[in-house]
Amino acid sequence: MLNNWSRTPAIHPSEVEEHLSRGYRLLDVREFYEFEAGHIEGAQHIPLSRIAEEFHQIAPDQKYVVVCRSGARSNSITEMLLGQGIEAVNLSGGLQSWITHGKALTDGSGGRGRLA
Which tens digit of pLDDT belongs to each residue from 64-90? Predict the structure, then answer.
């Protein structure tokens, strides 16, 4: 699936588990306070504001499902990763869509998370 605002590959929340089973890793690019309030369990966290400094944490041979709140920030990072030759897809609609489809978030303490 391609998202509406670009030609960037995107997936629906119902497709995330399938991608994870095929070796993809979740990459959450929201800011620290957003991630701590609620995130998909097991997601790697690199805030968009620190992506240049933390880019070394992104493995070039790893495949990624990139997420943010609405899908806009993650769309930008997905495009950047693809430009670097790293396989990546955007979570269409972001975590807002994830929650709308009945999926859970966890917080920084391992409890029930929420969107910040």
Answer: 999 999 999 999 999 999 999 999 999
The CATH superfamily holding the domain 10-100 is Rhodanese-like domain (3.40.250.10)
Rounded CA separation 108/89 (Å): 25
State the DSSP string of 91-115.
ETTHHHHHHHTT---B-TTSSB---
Based on the residue annotation, tell me whether 33 is a catalytic residue of this protein.
no
Maximal C-alpha separation, the chain: 37
The single residue of 10, 68, 91, 105 carrying the catalytic annotation is 68
Domain coordinates of the chain in residue numbers?
A: 10-100
